[in-house]
Amino acid sequence: MYLDGALGATEREGVEAHLTTCATCRAEAEALGDLFAALAKVTDVPAPNLVPGVLAHIRPRRRLSALGWLVPAFQGAAAAALLAWGWVRLIDRLSAIIQTLPDGGLGIPWGNIAGWVTSQWATLSTWPGTFLSTFQGWSALFSTIPRFTLPQVVLLGVAAAALWLIGNALLLRRAAPR
Amino acid sequence: MTSPEETGETELIQTAQQGDADAFGQLVVRYQQAVFNIAYRMTGNHHEAEDVAQEAFIKSYRALDRFDPTRPFAPWLYRITTNTALNWIKRSRPEVKMDEETTRSETTLSIEAQTIAAETSDRLRAAIAKLAPNYRAVIELRHFQGLSYKEMSETLNIPLSDVKSWLFRARRRLREVLA
């Protein structure tokens, strides 16, 4: 600690006083001093060029950042489309189910709620219908899309979730540095 | 007051923090010599040092978000390098305990030592490479990076008392090897 300069003034003076009288400790300190001096003279060896190797590992992160805008946007759009499609297919069925629910003694007017939701949807659904009808042929295409049953919609949802998880896992694995 | 070089470095770090790999590449150019030599002193092997240095740069890039660009970059990078080298030795040579000496480095450096035996630097590097990995680390941090006992304790995540005893034993062993 003395040679490292890690002692306080009082302790350092104590060690220095001891070194003037103790030949063994003085020799020890001198030998250590020589070692310190030798270590200070160690020269560097030339380094290889590490840039290509490092960049090869970190560049995927940049590509992922660029993809990062596209992938969630696509996923969000797909999920929204799936939800909208499911809503269109299921709204009538859900309304019918809701109307049969008991109020559980809480006085909840399920029938009124269902009626309101159905009427709102009927109002809203005219907007995409009107929009689509402005494009000749699109409305015809829209009508050809097959109707899905409830199990099919659930299955689609599960499949979409599985694909999303697998896709993300693969992307992250590819981008992670070794 | 910061020098133009330091100012440029701060900008490079900030650009790299935004995900610019090319800016980080310029930092690699600046520090690859120092980082490689830390790795070389720690592993005692040229090829391993290259792998360790590369891994240290990749780790530092991934940790760059947590680095404060107003602080000095070099000590932060060198500490990552030292710990990367220690972990590398643990991983690649699980048979070597951290407080036991290894003969592997002696073998890998013997050719070099025979070729340029007169070179003090090579002799010292070879001697350091013979030390136990944790002793190499304290010699590296103290004598080549100039860390205080407290900084060494924080870097290696060990008590201050261990820093002192490891350093004492490392120096004693180094003198024996060099004698």
Explain how this protein is built.
The complex is a heterodimer of chains A (178) and B (179). Chain A folds into two domains: 9-40; 51-175, no CATH class. Helices cover 77% and strands 0% of the residues of chain A. Chain A has helices at 9-21, 23-40, 51-99, 110-133, 138-144, 150-175. Mean pLDDT of chain A is 70; it is low at 174-178. Chain B is built from nine helices and no strands. Chain A binds chain B through residues 1, 4, 6, 31-32, 35-36, 38-51, 53-55, 57-59, 61-62, 65, 177-178, and chain B through 19-22, 24-25, 28-29, 32-37, 40-41, 46, 50, 53-55, 57-58, 61-62, 120-121, 124-125, 139, 142-144, 148-149, 164, 167, 171, 174-175, 178.
CATH architecture descriptor name of chain B: Orthogonal Bundle
Tally of alpha and pi helices of chain B: 9
Kindly identify the CATH topology of chain B.
Answer: Rna Polymerase Sigma Factor, Chain: A
Q: What pair of chains forms the biggest interface? A: A-B, 32 and 41 residues
Q: Which structural class is indicated by helix and strand composition of chain A? A: mainly alpha
H-E string of chain B: HHHHHHHHH
Task: Report how far apart the termini of chain B are.
Answer: 46 Å
Oligomer: heterodimer
Main β-sheet of chain A, in a few words? Answer: none
Radius of gyration of chain B: 17 Å
Low-pLDDT segments, ≥5 res of chain A: 174-178
Number of domains of chain B: 1
Considering the protein shown, what is the CATH homologous superfamily of chain B?
Answer: RNA polymerase sigma factor, region 2, helix turn helix motif
Instruction: Kindly provide the name of the CATH class of chain B.
Output: Mainly Alpha
Overall geometry of chain A comes to elongated
Strand content of chain B: under 5%
Total DSSP E strands of chain A: 0
Q: How many helical elements of chain A?
A: 6
Over all CA atoms, what is the radius of gyration of chain A?
Answer: 38 Å
